[in-house]
Each structure stands twice: as C-alpha cells, then as structure tokens.
Specification:
Blueprint: E1 7-11, E2 16-21, H1 32-47, E3 53-58, E4 62-64, H2 69-77, H3 80-100, E5 105-109, E6 112-114, H4 116-122, E7 126-130, E8 134-136, H5 150-158, H6 160-169, E9 172-174, H7 175-181, E10 186-188, H8 193-205, H9 209-221, H10 227-241, H11 245-261
Parallel strand pairs: 2-3, 3-5, 4-6, 5-7, 6-8, 7-10
Antiparallel strand pairs: 1-2, 8-9
Helix pairs in contact: 1-3, 4-5, 5-6, 9-10
Length: 262
C-alpha cells in the first residue's frame, strides 16, 4: 500500500502552485521528513518556470499544529548543540528559503495553526484565514520561545506590544481578531477560503511578473535599508522595468484607450 508524501505539490493552468501540508491525522504537525519536504517543495516551486504564485494550505481540518510530539521528544533528548543544529539545518531553512524567493506566497489558513505552524503562516507574504480557524503562539505553555523566527515576523505584522502579549500569554486568536490586528489579510467563510485564495492568486499571476517580483524585493529589503539606499535601489528597478515587454504593452494599451475616449 502506498503512503502519501508529507507535502503535496501541484501546478494548475493559471500558474498557481499549491503546496499542501499532508499529515491530516496528525493535524499536519511536522516531523523532520515533513520539514525537509516543505523546504524542497518551496525550492521546486521557485525553480519551476510555470509557477507564478504559490499557495500553502493544510490537508484536513488543520493548517499546522506545530511540531510533532514524537519529534519533540527526540529533540528533548539531544544535547544543546544538537538541538541548535536541528533548527539551523532543517527548520530555519524554510524561513531562509522563503526570504530568498521572488514569487508571491499566500497562506490559506484552513484550520488551527499553533506554535511553529502559526509562524509558518506568518512567513508567507499574504494570509487568508477561514472564519473558524485559529492562531496561537503557544510556545510559552511548554516553556519555550519561537525557535523559527516567529519573534521576528509577528512584531513586524502587528507591532511589538501586541506581539509580546500573544507570546507571553499563548492565547488563541480567532479569525475576526486576527484580521482586525493585521495578523492576517482577510477572514473568509470556511466554504469560500480556497476559492478566495485562488482568486487572489490568479489576480497576482495575471500581472506583469517581473514587476511583481521587484515589488517583493523592494518591500522586504526596505525593512533594513536607509531611505536614500532604498530610493537608489528602486530607481534601478524602475529603469529596468521600463524595458520590459509588459511595460511597453501596458503603455500602448493606455494610449489606445486614451485616444479612443477622445
């Protein structure tokens, strides 16, 4: 009997690559195999020329419950250097792979996202969340901190004070609150989550792709740049984009519409 892989990856005709966390019986909690497969699938999607936008979601009723308890037991048995090395060589590779990517990544949070599962959603560029789904930075409940950069991502989304509240209390955040405080972009009725996610993905996939990717670079790199450095960079981006066929076609279409309206 065949065993399904922990990560499913498929590309549709619109250039949307869907990465599905596929351990539904374990609420998509990740073990070492799943972490490495997750990183490999992201790299595959980045390298695949058909893919314009990536969607990440979970199979079954959860997005990701965080670390698998069996895996965490093995983690506890390691010495401190072994634990650090595990995070560095495996878990951290997902965040660093996402940082290097140029293609937009949208999380469709279809159910519970806890601890590292919550952080994996935060690492994506955009988050849509089912109305019944929940998020929680639950590390504090077992005496840990986020070892995968949750403490880097969350304050940038919702501010320092709100982030510290969620880290220190570990409380569960529902979809309505998550939308209100900016933890997710949009709350969507459960039955409409994937349709809304793919609608957004197709909208982005239909735009000039080099401009989409330059915007991603500009936004993230601006977080560590002085204004003058950022302006120098985006002037180069704009100068390059002026030469693209998409820009020239867009200008020609605008001129034709303008002439037709006179």
């Amino acid at each position: 009997m065949s065993v399904e892989p922990p990560i499913l990856f498929a590309v549709d005709a619109d250039g949307i690559g869907t990465l599905t966390l596929n351990r539904p019986d374990q609420l998509n909690a990740f073990d070492l195999e799943m972490v490495d497969a997750w990183r490999a699938a992201l790299e595959q999607a980045e390298a695949d020329e058909r893919v314009k936008v990536i969607v990440v979601t979970g199979a079954g009723r959860a997005f990701c419950a965080g670390g698998d308890f069996e895996e965490m037991a093995k983690f506890s048995e390691m010495d401190s250097m072994g634990r650090k090395d595990f995070l560095y060589r495996h878990v951290h590779r997902i965040a660093l792979t996402l940082e290097r990517m140029e293609k937009p990544v949208i999380a469709a949070v279809n159910g519970a996202a806890r601890g590292a599962g919550c952080d994996m959603a935060l690492m994506c560029d955009i988050r849509l969340m089912a109305s019944s789904a929940t998020l929680a930075e639950s590390y504090i409940n077992i005496g840990l901190i986020a070892g995968d950069a949750g403490s880097w991502f969350l304050p940038r989304l919702i501010g320092t004070a709100r982030a510290l509240e969620l880290f220190w209390t570990g409380r569960v955040v529902g979809a309505q609150e998550a939308e209100r405080i900016g933890m997710v972009n949009r709350m969507v009725p459960d039955a409409e989550l994937m349709a809304a996610t793919y609608e957004m993905a197709r909208t982005i996939a239909a735009k000039p792709q080099q401009a989409v990717r330059f915007f991603r670079r500009a936004v993230y790199q601006s977080q560590t740049m002085a204004l003058a450095t950022h302006l120098d960079m985006v002037s180069s981006h704009m100068a390059v984009l002026e030469d693209t066929p998409e820009h020239r076609a867009g200008i020609a279409a605008f001129r034709n519409r303008s002439r037709a309206s006179k």
